[in-house]
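step 4 of 6: structure.
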Amino acid sequence: MREPKYNLKFIIGIAILLSLLVLLPLFLPSYYIGLFSLMLIFAIFSMSLDILQGYTGLPSLGHAAFLGIAAYIVGLLNVKVFKGCNFGIELVAGILSAAIVACILGLIVLRSKDVYLLMILLASSMMLWGIAFKWRSLTGGDDGLPGIARPDLSFIHWNLGNTIHFYYFVLLFFIVSGILMYLIVNSSFGHILMGIRESEIRMQSLGYNTWLQKYIAFIISGIFAGISGILLAYYNGFVSPSEFHLVTSAEGLIMVILGGVGTLIGPAIGAVIIILIKNFISAYTEHWMIILGLIYIFTVIFAPEGIYRIFKKLLER
Amino acid sequence: MKALVVENLSKNFDGLQALDNISFSVEKGERLAIIGPNGAGKTTLFQLINGIIPPSSGKIFLFGKDITKLSTYQRASLGIGRTFQITNLFSNLTVFDNVLLALEAFNFTRFNIFYPAYSYKKLVSKAEEILNEWNLLEKKDDLVKNLSYGEQRKLEIILTLSQNRSLLLLDEPTCGLSFDESKNFVSMIRSFSREYTILLIDHDLDVTFEIAEKVMVLHFGRIIAYGNPEEVRNNPKVQQIYTGEER
């Protein structure tokens, strides 16, 4: 899509959005700042899923595998090895673990397509869930791994125990990840992914090794999902098998669809909305999944192109 | 030199014998037309040469090299380009992006994950040049799905021709083109240098006989006639098939 990406409107829009995010702690009580940290974490997650779902046309119900493995690696290193936070190593190990899982999974699953791919990825992530659930001695089983310490950034006078400081910490990752993903989808490589989404056979006939391009996209997507997993582990201070669960993957998928498949900004908006609704509704009922299902149905029927595109059309009128 | 050699090629789709043990060869620079009624196996033959589906048995050689086991993209890199009978484009991308994707196929840029796609000036101006030649430059920012059928068919041809492949498989290229466009197309193909070898499927027999030096007639997966256009035209078996007379 050759949208006017470098036009003034777009840049101004992004600038306003970013300054709002930066200034947020001035307006909102710290409870909501915490909530916003969670939204940004899931925004990275849903944007990473969109690289697969929206740009490459590979649907996934197992994206939680990457988030989960990175979260668990951070948790294990933090709680069992370092008995505290060694941020540099944990960050690298978390990203590497997500990349390795993506490398291995990609070899297995990328031969299949569409619903089959969706199901195989679902099964793979649930297998990891099973391991996290059953291997009590290592993972703590259902109780998870509590007591994950946040990084110590006192050398730049940041105290990540402070909600606002932690929010800026997450925001930094969100901005860097967002810029990188934006560059990727607008690069030649990103355009080739879109070509594969539109017609893989034509791409092969033109001379593209589509498998390799998809494989690289799969690993890139996994790495960014891994980053969200690392942040989530620090945010919660514990990891549990639910990180790997189908529900996490499904929430990610609904964020993408609700916000707008293939737009990057859309899934980020989707993440904000879903986390917000989830937060309010869980205060009243345990049946969050029912509401999530309803949101999904309404989106597909009334706004299949996603909130972001509808919003954009309204603005252009 | 032989550009393409097909040896005892068969394709069986769950009991349906789409191609039955066919063998033929094409000299470098030759223009061969493949004709035959619907369901004769013409497109299947293209898919086998192109590598989108594997043959049940038989071998295919491209410039003397056995390509039977190679994948589609490897065959493309060895010089096979193909247009599709049923328009196969990137419909949600712009016309410009479609051409750019065709040009980038063997460019190092395809693995550049951070550098913007439109910043390769050579590729961009080349794409614009091609669109200008085909009178599609005005529509370069339109999504392909919003083009008329004729324009889509044009783009279908552009994508394949822009890559300068040495063996072109053209599957009903003039279907959907206007009379004039079709005539232009024929004269363009005729003006191609003999570096290009062309295999053509077309229902328009005028187009076929104007371009082709050799004609091969397929019927129920078998070659029932092969020769120069005049011979084939006068072949009683071929006349039977096309006029539907009883044997």
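step 5 of 6: annotate
 - Chain A has a mean pLDDT of 90.
 - The beta strands of chain A are 145-146, 238-239.
step 6 of 6: archive
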